[in-house]
Amino acid sequence: MYDIIIIGAGPAGLTAAIYCGRSKLRTKIIEKAQPGGQVNLTEKVENFPGVFMADSKKISEVMIKQAKELESVEIDEFKDVKSVNCKDGIIEIKGSSDISGKDFSHQCKALILACGAQPKKLGLKGESEFTGKGVSYCAICDAPFFKDKDIVVIGGGDAALEEALYLAKFAKSIKLIHRRDQLRASGILQDRIKNNPKMELVLSSIPLEISGKNFVEKISVKNVKTGKESEINCSGVFIFVGYAPNTKFLEGFLTLDSDNYIITDEEMATEKQGIFACGDCRKRPFRQIVTACGEGAVAAHSAEKYLTNNNR
Ligand code: NAP
Q1: What tens digit of pLDDT does each residue of 133-153 get?
Q2: Rounded distance between C-alpha atoms, residue 95 and residue 272, angstroms
Q3: Ligand 1 in reach of 159 Cβ (< 6 A)
Q4: What is the distance between the alpha carbons of residues 228 and 186, in angstroms, rounded to a whole number?
Q5: Is the CB of 259 under 6 A from ligand 1?
Q6: Which fold is adopted by the domain 2-118+243-309?
Q7: CA nearest 230: which of 201, 206, 200?
Q8: Which of 25, 92, 170, 280 is most buried, judging by how many CB atoms fall within 10 Å of its CB?
Q9: Minimal-distance CA residue to ligand 1 atom 32
């Protein structure tokens, strides 16, 4: 029986673990992949106070080390949680190992959901067919395959612009397709995009279809103001149009919002006693590493308070 189980080892889950471990609570983190979360998929972190232009991997390595060094904290990797149930104040988490295929079941007194989010798909014709054959959702993973190639990036938020700037180090040219005539991303990223000679903005345009023979060769787009359709020749299409929360295993157990995010109060408490949520899986207005860490700390504090108040 664990005091606390944390599902997800991104910045929110790792921060929660650091706080739980420092309170000497018997804590297990269950992570679907490797610890670190989405930070592992970015190149640099520039907006985490106290850390100047840090290599993203270094930030997650330090967070993981901080959690692992605490005596009462353990981390299980490559374990997929399939269900959560609660009876008489005991919470049961069931799933299976992605490595051995074996099922597992763990019990705890309080649960922190920090299961994060994953890139949204557009549902375009050709998108799933060419995933891994020119269509990608991760610049840091796939950029080297596009050295001196013409590529397209879809999206106008922070992720699209940040990833496009990373891709520009490899690609010959980048066309950034965005559905409106105003980008959503922060001003500093917009300035960098506009000053990068490899970058061309294709605004007020929506993608229609990705096509090619064995690999991506072109994408067709429609200008939403003029209605004109055109084709862009390219070897790669990188899609960054937001994220969807990893909450499928909670359907029917917790009430989720219309986009499947977990609803909590200010103390990160869900509608179910002893169950808390933090980070990108939680309904919130601003998704940053710094806000995920802050929420992780609050969730750990609330979970500890719950255990104390209920003599658990
Ligand atoms: P986002 O801010 O929600 O932006 C998604 C972008 O994709 C928007 O430009 C949106 O267009 C576009 N889009 C959404 N659905 C679309 C569709 N069906 N077809 C075409 N375009 C579509 O998501 P994000 O950029 O992934 O960022 C997620 C969160 O992480 C944000 O809170 C962001 O600030 C944060 N983040 C921060 C950093 C950083 O601070 N350095 C880096 C990455 C991410 P509209 O603008 O028209 O809605």
Answers
A1: 999 999 988 999 999 999 999
A2: 20
A3: yes
A4: 29
A5: no
A6: FAD/NAD(P)-binding domain (3.50.50)
A7: 206
A8: 280
A9: 287
